[in-house]
Amino acid sequence: MAEKVEQKDVVTSEAIVETFTKEDVKEVAETHEEHVEPTEEDWKTLREVGDNVPLSAFLVILIEFCERFTYYGITGPFQNYIQQPAPPSYPAEQPGAIGKGQQTATALTTFLQFWAYITPVLAAIVSDQYLGKYRTILLSSFIYVIGLLILVCTSIPSAIEAGAAFPGLIVSIILIGLGTGGIKANVSPLVAEQYQSKAPFVRTLKNGTRVIVTPQATYQQMFNMFYWGINVGGLSAIATTTMEKNIGFWSAYLLPLCMFIVGIVVVISGRKRYVEAPPRGSIILEASKVIKLWFKTRNFDDCKPSALTKTNPDLAAVATWDDVFVDELRRALKACVVFCWFPIYWLCYQQITNNLISQAATMLTGNVPNDIIQNIDPFALIIIIPIMDRIVYPLLRRFGFPMRPIIRISIGFLVAAASMAYTAGIQSLIYKTPPHFDHPGDEVNWISAAFQIPSYVLIALSEIFASITGLEYAYKKAPQSMKAIVMSLFLLSNCFASILAFALVSVTEDPKLTWMYTGIGVSAFICSILIWVFHGKGDKVDVQEDAIARDESGMEEYYKKTGINIDKEKQDNVNEKEA
């Protein structure tokens, strides 16, 4: 809400140096010096660092941790739950429930990913236009809980025997997809929204060293923390896949339900702390009017009210947007073009949630469940993210190479391509191994599943460059009033990846899998090159574009022009606090 930006329960912007020694952090000057804009010479000579992360941002990260604990906890066992038949008793050598086979299992897990990444668009419209991020997250959480309750109840042994597991799973997937979509569209923008500084400034450390504190470095740090929390939550699949093997699927789904209830408690308990922009009821209509006008003028500058006063005074008089909104929208549309490449990346990533699990079922796993191996991905991320955030990125910035978004995204695609190339090699090796060679089916060839480890590690590394940067890019480039909508468009790229995965279902069978992995890897490699060729110049203007923002007086004028009653927003905040 409008007044929440002015709350003092958020950490002030004290500088913190992002380097790789604790001594450097101690050098930060704890002063309230005036923010001085860096000069051209400063940009050439001073190193770039991040600011302090507000405490309220960590509270939002905790919410995402609980949600991801729940999501990965239930989806980890899904492939076995759908593919394999129910065993006679537990503990089971190969747990299962519905027995629909690999193609059906892959199709349904792919549908969940499709559904979970198309629903954020609906949730974003509700959030940015009507309810706001906090209320949308709360509403989505209650829908999520209903889906989880149905999943738990229909996965108990008596329900499986009665045939309730499959219809219960379908209903659960629909409700859980709605719930997670509503949360995903809003929680990452809400994290970044807790940091309010929009322009870089120069700060002097205690030792006299001058540095440039930038929003770019700060957001990079915040989204690294956010993604780290996601993957700590993702380790829940270790517990749930173990429970599925030794106790049964009902216990594997009950644990995430309990954790999600904790998440709802966190959402409600932190309601007074969140910094949140007010929703705008006309934002979609407003953006569409500007885009429609652009098709006529072919120049965004001509769509600004300041220009319309000269060329079309009647339209300028009724325009609800301002000049800054046009610049923000132009910047957001450029970002959305970059998102068009991401379906190929997500197609690489999705292999670790279905086909690689099935691949492990044809390999020697010992006493380890085949679907627990996917947790190598979050384990790798938990280790690598702090190294990148505290050592690699600061070191590169110290040497004048800040690694702007496009180069990071391009590298992410390249590493994902390497992961798929390696996976294709392992699949070929499986087909050359006895006793079943290229038709293992549900049987095991004599090759260790440890060969899969590099596939997961490479995908994890690619996520740091591509996925985390995509979240950061979506937030930074979106207009203030469209953060959730632009974030949902980035998430929508995962939905299109699921459509591509549906098209590949016919080849997710032996002996075609080698060529499937090869084709996906080649596609990612080509995209990596094309992204840099077509969008690489964007890194040169990244800082200037991010500086497009309104000051406080500009925001008041903007809300006045668009009909938002700031006084009412303030009173709503007061009433909420009193309640």
Automatic annotation (TrEMBL):
Recorded GO MF terms: dipeptide transmembrane transporter activity
Main location class: membrane
Topology within the bilayer: Multi-pass membrane protein
Matching InterPro entries: MFS_trans_sf, POT_fam, PTR2_symporter_CS
Record's keyword terms, sorted: Membrane, Transmembrane, Transmembrane helix, Transport
Membrane is among the record's keywords: yes
Residues spanning the membrane: 137-160, 166-187, 225-243, 249-270, 405-431, 451-473, 485-507, 513-534
Chain segments annotated as coiled-coil in the UniProt record: none
Gene3D superfamilies the record matches: MFS general substrate transporter like domains
Localisation per UniProt entry: Membrane
A single cellular component GO annotation: plasma membrane
Family: Belongs to the major facilitator superfamily. Proton-dependent oligopeptide transporter (POT/PTR) (TC 2.A.17) family.
Protein name: Uncharacterized protein
Organism: Circinella minor
